[in-house]
């Protein structure tokens, strides 16, 4: 069992107050333990956790580049194996590094079957460079490269389904979780690092700066995403959906209205057409994963 | 206005209708500005790609639909674009790349200025080739040179690079936007002429997809039809020599520069951000016997301009790298050429350059 008192990510880093990814980093290491090597892609977490001349990491940590964490991890894992060693090799990368620029290397690593755990902290945009859209940005969210305005309703495409893409690679374990449920993260990471083969975990990490909400509400936002069905916590084991977090669903407005990135759907007037489209995304999630609690 | 925004505005003024890009510090403002502006311009397309490899590929694709296309990036992104840059050279695809240079190698200094990519832009992709590289030293030049880059790309059917740096890209200055900018589109392909048959200037006319001509585009060595012919030594020799000479032969005609004090004994050769310090030393402080050559087009290198200083005893080349263009100057002259290298992200101080003049005086 994971030692929940273990702190392998130190305090004093430079994340924003209320940073979702910072919480995720701490929880990941509680699940993975001390015998872990981290490959980090370029991104917020890389920058805030390693401010010169300090580092928050108490485990070996390598900043790869933006696109290649899974390939660097492949090399580490393959070499360790030849040496008879069995440290946990974990990639921790943001959604830009995972959904967009890094897909090639991730796909290669999963196809070759390296014994690594790839963890995406998903804050749904490029936050390190100042809030540009990524393949993980939800439908209608305003970012600096999908700005809402007279000619645009924000990001015009739905979020890419990375967990299913990795499941389709034949990964033995694919899971989603949220910083709103800390024990769930620890449990899932612990499970993944103890499974032989490439595992994928995607953690929903609300970003107060990029999404536009008060830093004291991060956990609340994470919960709302799940309670509205816009984020689903599940486990896919050997291709089979095994466990899903069920909820008594709330309307998506409850989640959207508290974030500036969706403010254009409420002002100057309520855009019921667009909100209905987002509700349909939540309804489809509910249907696909069977998240609705039977009352 | 900020240099990066001025560059985006210069592109729009020149009729750029396609931007494919990917966020990277310190160039991101170019993409962000295009994302905000382009949806309002009919027929324009801003597209965020999944990485810089894809960004470069997308602007090549767009160029073959007849659009003026552009991307913007920095250090690591520029490295990722290299294979596609060679492809654009080989396929003679007109397009514009803005590189807001930052400290390297690797991730280096994302928020600090540098001129460390000046050799990479010239030689970074594999094989022999030539390109055109422009270097702005002010916000106004960001606008003017980006607009100009599109005309050069079209005229020579080649990728053209705006090699700015973080200092200029993030600088805010007054910008005068002209009522209109000169727009020279590529010459069309004359009836009966094959798509890769060069004109007298070595440049073929351009027939984008859907303009009534059968066009076959490949990165393989090809004949005038564009068909692969990869084992004929004479074919490869003629093609690659033409790709180089169509640009190199025009280097003096297209030279874009400022010369101050042709009688100077100590002459700064400068481009980009260091121009500002040189101007302080020569124009404002009027340090005796000094003058300068500011290059706004660095590649192809117009070496004849070095002869415009008949009394010159030494050239001094301040660069924000460990000495790149200084080598180019050095191989064309027989007098001392003194590098003033500064890396780390800060501009040269006037004192750095005055010290270099003293060194030059003591050694000549």
UniProtKB/TrEMBL annotation, chain A:
Q: Which GO terms describe its biological process?
A: organic acid metabolic process; sulfur compound biosynthetic process
Task: Report the residue ranges that make up the Thiamine pyrophosphate enzyme TPP-binding domain in this protein.
Answer: 42-203
Gene Ontology molecular function, alphabetical: oxidoreductase activity; thiamine pyrophosphate binding
Task: Give start-end positions of Polar residues composition bias.
Answer: 137-155
Q: Which CDD domains does the UniProt record give?
A: TPP_PFOR_porB_like
Q: Which UniProt keywords apply?
A: Oxidoreductase, Pyruvate
Q: Is Oxidoreductase one of the keywords?
A: yes
Q: Where is this region: Disordered?
A: 137-157
User: What binding partners and quaternary form does the record give?
Assistant: Heterotetramer of one alpha, one beta, one delta and one gamma chain.
What protein am I looking at? Answer: Pyruvate ferredoxin oxidoreductase
What organism does the UniProt record list as the source?
Methanospirillum stamsii
TrEMBL record, chain B:
InterPro entries cross-referenced by the UniProt entry: PFOR_II, Pyruvate:ferred/Flavod_OxRd, Pyrv_Fd/Flavodoxin_OxRdtase_N, THDP-binding, Transketo_C/PFOR_II
Alphabetically ordered keywords of this record: Oxidoreductase
Q: Which CDD domains did the record assign?
A: TPP_PYR_PFOR_IOR-alpha_like
The Pyruvate flavodoxin/ferredoxin oxidoreductase pyrimidine binding domain covers 9-241
Give GO terms: molecular function aspect only. 2-oxoglutarate synthase activity
The catalytic activity of this protein is classed by the Enzyme Commission as 1.2.7.3
Q: Which Pfam families match?
A: PFOR_II (PF17147), POR_N (PF01855)
| Catalytic reaction(s) noted | 2 oxidized [2Fe-2S]-[ferredoxin] + 2-oxoglutarate + CoA = succinyl-CoA + 2 reduced [2Fe-2S]-[ferredoxin] + CO2 + H(+)
What EC class is this? Answer: oxidoreductase
What biological-process terms (Gene Ontology) are attached? Answer: organic acid metabolic process; response to oxidative stress; sulfur compound biosynthetic process
- Kindly give the PANTHER family that the UniProt entry links to this protein: 2-OXOGLUTARATE SYNTHASE SUBUNIT KORA, PYRUVATE-FLAVODOXIN OXIDOREDUCTASE-RELATED
This protein is called 2-oxoglutarate synthase subunit KorA
Q: What does the record give as the organism's lineage?
A: Archaea, Methanobacteriati, Methanobacteriota, Stenosarchaea group, Methanomicrobia
């Amino acid at each position: 069992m994971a030692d929940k008192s273990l702190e392998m990510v130190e305090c004093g880093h430079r994340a924003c107050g209320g940073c979702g990814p910072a919480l995720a980093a701490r929880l990941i290491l509680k699940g993975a333990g001390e015998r872990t090597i981290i490959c980090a892609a370029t991104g917020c977490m890389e920058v805030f956790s390693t401010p010169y001349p300090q580092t928050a990491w108490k485990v070996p940590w390598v900043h790869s580049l933006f696109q290649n964490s899974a390939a660097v991890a492949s090399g580490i894992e393959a070499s360790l194996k030849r040496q008879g060693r069995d440290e946990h090799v974990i990639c921790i990368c943001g959604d830009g590094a995972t959904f967009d620029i890094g897909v090639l290397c991730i796909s290669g690593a999963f196809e070759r079957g390296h014994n690594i755990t790839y963890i995406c902290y998903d804050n749904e945009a490029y936050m390190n460079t100042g809030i540009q859209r990524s393949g993980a940005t939800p439908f209608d969210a305003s970012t600096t490269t999908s700005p809402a305005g007279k000619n645009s309703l924000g990001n015009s495409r739905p979020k890419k389904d990375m967990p299913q893409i990795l499941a389709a690679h034949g990964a033995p374990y694919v899971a989603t979780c949220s910083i709103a449920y800390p024990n769930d993260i620890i449990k899932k990471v612990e499970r993944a690092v103890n499974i032989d083969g490439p595992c994928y975990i995607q953690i929903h990490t609300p970003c107060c700066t990029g999404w536009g909400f008060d830093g004291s509400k991060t956990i609340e936002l994470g919960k709302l995403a799940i309670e509205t069905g816009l984020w689903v916590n599940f486990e896919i084991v050997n291709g089979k959906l095994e466990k899903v977090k069920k909820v008594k669903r709330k309307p998506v407005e409850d989640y959207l209205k508290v974030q500036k990135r969706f403010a254009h759907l409420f002002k100057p007037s309520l855009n019921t057409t667009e909100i209905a489209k987002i509700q349909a995304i939540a309804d489809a999630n509910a249907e696909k994963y069977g998240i609705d609690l039977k009352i | 206005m900020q240099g990066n925004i001025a560059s985006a505005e210069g592109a729009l003024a020149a009729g750029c209708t396609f931007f494919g890009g990917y966020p990277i510090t310190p160039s991101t403002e170019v993409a962000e500005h295009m994302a905000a502006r382009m949806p309002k311009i009919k027929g324009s397309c801003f597209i965020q790609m999944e990485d810089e490899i894809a960004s470069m590929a997308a602007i090549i694709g767009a160029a073959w639909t007849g659009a003026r296309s552009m991307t913007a990036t920095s250090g690591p992104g520029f490295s990722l674009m290299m294979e596609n840059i060679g492809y654009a050279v080989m396929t003679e695809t007109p397009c514009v790349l803005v590189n807001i240079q930052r400290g390297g190698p690797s991730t280096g200094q994302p928020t600090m200025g540098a001129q460390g990519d000046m050799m990479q832009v010239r030689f970074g992709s594999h094989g022999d080739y030539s390109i055109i590289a422009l270097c702005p030293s002010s916000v106004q030049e960001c606008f003017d040179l980006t607009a100009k880059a599109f005309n050069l790309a079209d005229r020579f059917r080649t990728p053209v690079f705006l090699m700015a740096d973080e200092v200029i890209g993030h600088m805010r200055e007054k910008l005068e936007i002209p009522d209109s900018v000169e727009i020279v589109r590529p010459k069309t392909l004359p009836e009966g002429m094959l798509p890769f048959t060069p004109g007298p200037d070595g440049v073929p006319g351009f027939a984008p997809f859907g303009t009534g001509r059968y066009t076959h585009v490949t990165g393989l060595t090809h004949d005038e039809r564009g068909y692969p012919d990869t084992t004929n030594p004479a074919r490869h020799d003629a093609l690659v020599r033409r790709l180089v000479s169509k640009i190199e032969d025009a280097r003096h005609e297209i030279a874009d520069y400022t010369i101050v004090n042709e009688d100077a004994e100590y002459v700064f050769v400068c481009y980009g951000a260091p121009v500002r310090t040189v101007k302080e030393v020569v124009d404002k402080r009027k340090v005796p016997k000094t003058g300068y050559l500011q290059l706004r087009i660095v590649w192809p290198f117009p070496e004849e301009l070095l002869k415009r200083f008949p009394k010159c005893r030494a050239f001094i080349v301040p660069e924000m790298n460990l000495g790149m263009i200084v080598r180019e100057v050095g191989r064309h002259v027989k007098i001392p050429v003194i590098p003033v290298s500064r890396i780390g992200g800060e501009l040269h101080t006037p004192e750095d350059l005055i010290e270099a003049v003293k060194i030059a005086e003591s050694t000549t």
